[in-house]
Amino acid sequence: MFTKLIELISSHNKIILLRHISPDFDAIGSQMSIFQFINDNFKNKTIKLGTTLPEEYKCIGKVDNLVEQDFEKALVIITDTANTARIDIEDVNWLKKATVFKIDHHVNVDKYADYEIVDASYPATCELLTDLFSKSNLIFSDKTAFYLFHGLVTDTDRFMFRNVTNRTFKMAEILSKKIEDLNSIYKNIYQINTNEIRLKGYILSNFKIVKNEIAYIYLNKEVLKEYEINNPDKVALWVNMLGEIKNIKLWLFFVENDSHIRTEFRSQSINVRLIAEKFNGGGHVSASGAKLFDSKSIDLVIEECIKASI
To answer: 138, 157, 189 — which closes off a domain?
Structure first.
């Protein structure tokens, strides 16, 4: 199917690269790596990227102002996005005007594309793309590797979680050999401001443990305002802070934003996707997300987690 992707890129002059809402480095890294890969290997292509770009990802990402006309007879490549509702696009109906190609590492619950490369055995879409690019005869540049390493190291949380295998380290080796300054990548990912580091201190002082097996923290708007946090989605991805607690089976972050409470589930031994699906969510076996619409639902989530841990 990678051969088909190359054929489609060759035959389309207009290409649009999309990924999921509330992006992470795997979404941004996979999107930007394809942007670079196409530029390195194909001439005279008009490539546009969508759609929103949080401040913390401007270190590697870029976006364009997309309109409906851009999608007319275009090739749209969507990375790291499991279902239609998660695509970062103003109007999903615009996709009907285009040829859509999905590249993803989530469980394939929504076959929304005309073509797809989906393999849930990869812990990151950036690992999947590394494997595809490295096996091709096309240019796999240092810049492409730079973008991919951001997604690989974050979606595995520094190779500690989420079905990391020997292949993961082989892909990391391929990337690291191409990158002169790995330290710059770690700075992009892990450097935070003083308010954020103080919030981490609050989290470590106020998390709760249930049944000696489940750890969680609820960060409401008042707490986030106190620490001058403007992006709750960034904080939600700190969830693996609680994964370092000894003997904990399942850990969660509940982070309130303007429209809902973003909930992040993580576990090494429990299928958290089954829990997340009960609360407007989904994802991976070991890492999933959900949306809650009132704080009372937090207790319901914890109850489901207790049942799953028995």
So the answer is: 189
